[in-house]
Amino acid sequence: MPANSDIFAPPDTAADARPNLIGMSRAEMADAVAEMDEPRFRGDQLFQWVYNRGVTDFEAMTNMAKPLRAALAERFSISRPAVSRDLDSIDGTHKWLIKLADGNEVETVHIPESDRGTLCVSSQIGCTLNCKFCHTGTQRLVRNLGPMEIVGQIMVARDHLGEWPSAERPTIYERQLSNIVMMGMGEPLYNFDNVAKALKIIMDGEGIAISRRRMTLSTAGVVPMIRRCGEELGVGLAVSLHAVRDELRDEIVPINRKYPLAELLAACREYPGARNSRRITFEYVMLKDVNDSVADARELVRLIAGIPAKVNLIPFNPWPGAPYERSSDEAIERFAEIVRIAGYPSPVRTPRGEDIMAACGQLKSDSERVSKSIRTAAE
User: Fold this and answer.
1) Which of 281, 297, 299 has its CA nearest to residue 333?
2) What is the pTM of this model?
C-alpha cells in the first residue's frame, strides 16, 4: 500500500465538534491563537501546557488571563483517547486497549525495566504486511492512526503512571516512561506523515520532551521510506529481518517480495546517522527449525557485515493458531554466540507480558475495517 493512503486515513470527525489540541503541532497552535487575535507566543504556552505539563483543563493554564482561558475552552478540547481495558502482567508489563473516537481500538504496552521504561506505540489499527509469525498480521488493516491517536497513547500512559514533569521528577532518567518504540500494531513507514508529525511533538523539548536518542522506529522494510525517516526524524532504526534468505523471507515477511534483502540492506548501509554509537537494530524472531540454524547465523553475519548494528534475538511468542514454535534455549544461545563472536551485540530478548498477550508479535484488537462505501454513507 502507498504511504499515507487516503483509503486508510483517520476520520475527520469526532463526538466533540471542537478541534482537539492533542495532535496539533507547535505552529498549528500558534496559528490557532493568532486567529483569536492573540500573540503567537501564546501558542508556545498552550503547547507547553498540553504536552509538557499534560493538563486537561484550560483553567490550569495559570499564565494566561481568565478571559483567554474561557475563549480557548469554548473553541478547543483537550481530549485523551478512552481506555477500554488495562491489564497488568505478572512481570510488571502493562497493556492498554485504547478506544478511539470512531469506536476502533488499538493496543499500547509499557515495559518497565530497572534502568528505563519503554512504551511500545502503535501506528495503525491492524496491519497490511501479513507476517506469518505475528498475531497483528492476522488482522486486516483497518486504518492509519492520526497524530492525536499516536501522541494520545503516550499521554494515556503518562496519566496512568502519574509522571508528568514536576519539581519532584525533574529529569527523564527518573521516569518510568523514558523510551518510545514504534513497534506496536502496524507498519510506521506506511503511515509516515502522521507518525512523523507525532514524533516531532514527542521529541520537542517544550512538548513531551523525549529525546530522539530514546526513540526507535521499527520497519519490516519499506525501503523507499527508510532514508526519509533518517533525514527527517533521525530516530533509531530497527529492522524486522527474521530471515537471511529471500525465499524464506518472502514467505514469513511478504514485503520482501517487493523489497528483497539486497535492497533492504543497502538502505540500512545508507541510513543517515548510522554509526557505532547509533547502531541499527536488526530484530530476528527465533522460529524452531525455520530460521535458527548455525548456517542461518553465519549468513546473517555475512549479510550485515560493515553495518553498525546489533541483533535482537526474539524468542517466538505464541498466540492461538500460530503456525510456529519457539526455538529451544540451546538453539538460541548457539545462534547468539556466532553473532557475538563476529563482533555484533546479540542480546536475547526476555519475553514480557505473555500472560496478557502483550509480548512482541502478540498485539491485536477486535476492530474490523469498514468498507469505503459504508464510511461514505455514514458521513
Assistant:
1) 297
2) 0.89
